[in-house]
Amino acid sequence: MNDLLTDADLCVKCGLCLPYCPTYTHTQNENESPRGRIALIQGWAGQKLAGSEALFGHIDNCLLCRSCERVCPAVVPYGRLIDNFRSQSRPEHHSSVRVSLIKKVAHDQKARRWAQQGLRLYQSSHLQQTARLLKLPQLLRFQALERLLPAHSQPSPAIKSHYLATTPQQGTVGLFVGCMGEWLDQETVQAAVTVLTCLGFAVHIPTRQACCGALALHDGDQATAQQLADTNISAFGELDLDAIVSIASGCGSQLREYTHLGFAHKVIDISQFLSQVGDRLTTRLKPLSKTVCIHTPCSLKNVLRTEQSIFKLLQHIPELNVIPLPDTVQCCGSAGSYMLDHPNMARILLNAVLDRALQQQPDTLVSSNIGCALHIKAGLRERGVRLEVVHPVVLLARQL
Question: Which residue from 29, 111, 157, 268 puts its CA 20 to 30 A from 17's CA?
Fold first, then answer.
């Protein structure tokens, strides 16, 4: 409790964060702002406010986009503050069924395999089309989860634990695919392997790697988050690696904040890693006469703070017109499991992002975080807009 108050007391309530907070921007409610939430936490930690449903609601409405951290002159560790509050107040409120289900799949390999097989049956047998036609997801209150499911595709080749460099070897990296990469984003995993090995890097994908722990941490379950961190540290620590490359910026931001500094300092987002060696790509890439719009996830912008890496990387593709979304565009509303429990606010934020993106009339939209990509794809499908959404490394692999 003292640590909670120590972090909260750093806030001087200047309000410079207010214009950058998505929930405050759309509600104009002080309780939905960073300083408002910090004041509520101070009242609760100081035993001046009871742990009411309203109080927990205002804190849970936070997306943890951490835009406020980036502009805070007092350097308040807002993300740590919210996570610690949720951990300490966890006995007083519980996870929703949707979040509990997604955590089970994310944290348990056996559950994930069952879910993968069930998804394949659900989509290949036309059950998904029928269920959506009859609006069964809405009736069963699983629409927020079901809408995120990707389109049916044929299974990709099984992911191996080790890939040799296909050109003279420049180094060895570990690839963090997380709990959802192999299941929901196989194209990105295969593309990452293709590009990295083409650039001369041997790639290890440890089979023992687990979820990064973000879902558990942001749900207040610090014990589970630490167990998952220990598993990943052990899995990658057995290998002699130059870097640990993450294909999802949300996972990468969590890995970079592990307390094991020997591990954390090796973690790098794949776009940042490739942008550092991108000159080797230029002569290998075929031209692509298309317009690409870049969506920058909050984790890349506000935690990793390497948002320019995607733009620099894609500029290596000849004839490609690359357009980033304006800095004024806020969080897309995905925010891990946020879109499951707060669908209304998530939809408001998503619509603002889609409106700006579609104004650019792109041929493709790229996003470097799987949660954001699934959320954006669902929003486009609900609008009846056919626009491909891929990870930037997929574009690179296609042009090799």
Answer: 268
